[in-house]
Amino acid sequence: MLKDNHGREHSYLRISLTEKCNLRCTYCMPEDGVDLRPSREYMTVKEVLNLARQFVELGVNKIRLTGGEPLVFKGFSEVLIGLAELPVELSITTNGIQLHKYFDELQRANVSKINISIDTLEEEKFNVLTRRKGFSKVWQSIREAIKRGFHVKLNMVVMKGFNDNEVVDFVALTNDLPIEVRFIEFMPFDGNQWNWDKVVPEAQLMNVIEQHFGQSSLQTLPLEKNYIARTFSLPDAKGCFGFISTMTHSFCGGCNRIRLTADGHIKNCLFTDDEIDLLTPLREGKSVVHLIEQSIKNKHPRNGGIDFENPASIHAHRSMISIGG
């Protein structure tokens, strides 16, 4: 098992298949986009599967495919087939635009969990935020995923003055739909024009929800092992809702996550600048096991070494789209 110097075991690998996306969400992609690099600088299908197998041999038992948008990766189906042969729980995070094309393949690969990013229930806002159209496609995919029995989570990045007034509407969805809505605090990444004034803390959101639905009507659900979200439900609701409060309520103590970027770098934290290139030595026929172990051992105890209470320590690093969520 991969352990860091703080005793945390790491068994969850998030693989970014591509930095490309068919949306241009403001909190994820810089307004000017990202530099397009030669395809040789990114992992091939064979290399993704090679590295995934090595991580599994080191104790990884859960793999999530991310992007960019993973479904625009030309080799997505091949990756899915290859990973399905490994003894892991497979899941995916997507914006839902092309999801309808892959439901059958996902089911054949025993993918049971799908996270869908949708930050507003209003089509006009969707078009502004994503700089593209596709709201109806996303909602069609959400309903089809539910119909097919997938465990569906809706990820909503909350931004003050833009969509924070929709929090109650998102919670209300859980009354009738068997989904988990997750409110994510706005986080700083390259080019997303982050500042503290745009962050809506969990406590503030919870206060709004309690005022609308009544504090006594909210049920606190048990925390999962290695949890990142505190979850709640309304009385007799089919679904639930929770908060991923990276900025105001760290959950680093139980972190078990590893990230592999589309260009083959291992990142042991979403916020760290520390990366180790695995792709180059892999192509040279060298072992990368010691590099993986080195990265995990050197993981910071919290937030990649950033102190969010000290504004001077907050800096922009990779854009979200080039990290992989």
Structure characterization notes:
The protein is of the alpha/beta class. The chain has one domain: Aldolase class I (TIM Barrel), CATH 3.20.20.70. 27% of the residues lie in helices and 19% in strands. It is built from ten helices and 14 strands. The strands form two sheets. The protein has a twelve-stranded mixed beta sheet. A two-stranded antiparallel sheet has the order 1-2. Strand 13 (265-267) and strand 14 form a beta hairpin. It is globular and about 60 Å long. The two termini are 23 Å apart. The mean pLDDT is 89. Residues 5-222 form the Radical SAM core domain. GO terms for molecular function: 4 iron, 4 sulfur cluster binding; cyclic pyranopterin monophosphate synthase activity; GTP 3',8'-cyclase activity; GTP binding; metal ion binding. It catalyses: GTP + AH2 + S-adenosyl-L-methionine = (8S)-3',8-cyclo-7,8-dihydroguanosine 5'-triphosphate + 5'-deoxyadenosine + L-methionine + A + H(+). Its cofactor is [4Fe-4S] cluster. Keywords: 4Fe-4S, GTP-binding, Iron, Iron-sulfur, Lyase, Metal-binding, Molybdenum cofactor biosynthesis, Nucleotide-binding, S-adenosyl-L-methionine.
